[in-house]
Amino acid sequence: MESIVVFCGSSEGNDPEIVDCAYQLGATFAAEGITLVYGAAKIGIMGRVAQGALDYKGKVIGVIPDFLKLKEVFHSGLTKLIITENMHQRKLRMHELSDGIITLPGGFGTMEELFEMITWAQLGLHQKPIGLLNINGFYDELLAMLRTMVNKGFLKQEYYDILLVDNSIDGLLHKMKNYEPLPLPIWIKKDQL
């Protein structure tokens, strides 16, 4: 994987371990030569991931819609800044620039980004590894809810297994590098991809 998009919060929350891990993820990307693609903010968990990569001479591409440039206080020291017209174009561009997806803690926006990427994978629109970094058990309840979806017959086990989960950066990157995607659904035609 040459580049990974990271979805995460524009606030830091109140758990210092999450903040530290976000910075370390960026530093790890730099050490491994992985380009960070993210939402371009210099604040919150987003800013910590970017700063970790930049402090260790990593390549960082920020993608932000024009209307959020002031609200999310974009990072001015990025390798490259891409400005889009809207949120949908932002996600699409981030997806196009990445070989994999990692989600860190965040709020509604982070959840929306994660679930859109999982849905696209379920539909066969991409076969990229999707990782969830479960720092300090942040996503334990979400994972329990997903398990309930499987148990109640609303989510197939094979789609549940699309989401790669680990508590450590190294463990998650190992799973992502060794990910074997599901075969494309037979009802999807090549011209629809």
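The record above closes out task 2.4. Task 2.5 opens with a second protein, given below.
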Amino acid sequence: MKQKWLILTLVSILACAPMTANLDAWATDRKGFQKSPSTKLAPKKRKTTLPSSGKSSKGQKVKPNLPVQTGFFIPPGANTLGTHAALYAAYASDVGALSINTIQSGPALTLATERVARHLNSDRLALGIVAYGAAWAATNDQFVTEVRKLDAQIGREALITKLRTEIAFARTLRGGEQAAQTAARALTADAKSIQNQSSGFKQAAYDWQKLRWAMASTMDAKVRNNALRKLTPPAPVTETALALSALPEATLGPQTTQARTIAISDSVRLASQAARDGVVLSEPIRAWSPIDRMVSLAALSALGGPIDRKEDTEALMRDPRLVSCVNSSRLNMQMCNAATKQPYERSYCLAEHPLGEIAICMAKTVR
């Protein structure tokens, strides 16, 4: 009996030997696969895909860095709301000045890219977008009048506290919904204009592959990326900050709705009044959105809050989602730029991040 069991055991061992060898071989291959430098697992986050010219280029890693922190200067006579709106006006001006036809060399493209991308190196651009929308919301005279009536009833301090703690409150006042829609149309129209610029430079990334200067490989990606990360956002233009600080206050003389509209339109020329009027809001503006912050800021402006309540004003301007969106655009731009070797690729980076992503950030304020 014992001999029979010994024989069966020996047969089983011999039968399993090939299987064990196969498993060992599979494990060895799998270990080699994991260590192979040519094999990468799919990233969890979406990666930027540069337009292909039939040639491959190896990207460089970029370490995330914090936004450039610079002193924030408020020009004499201006307030924090108007000054932040002027920051957005500066970004809009640089976007509007972009011209594909004037770019005929790699250095010219680098300069155009840096001029727009520098605005991303501070989260105050996100605050500027909200401040700009608030300036438009403040053009609704019925809303401004209603805010001042409520101020007389419950007192300035109580009203400011309510605006801070209940972001959606201001939109419930008479004229509040109209003020919200005015801001939403202005931001949507500007976002479409920025997106048009983005589409133009994205197409150029393909068209320029026919040009020698755009196909010339360079090895200066690291230098360009370091320069991009160190760019300082421009200071707000004093005249623009003053013009936007006067809304809806009458410190510079009585102003009608038309005068306010002209002042804002002169500061930001990305979209025409006809384009703003033509925007159709397909869905209701969601509650507790950045648009609600803009309406609350317009109410605060009607009380003179941006002049003596800087902390309250900045708190209302700082929408976490919008700040995160702008910061994401900055990091994506740095990673995209670091991966480029040829100028036409940099056109794609410009289109995709400091233009396209910011346009998306602005469009999302409504939804």
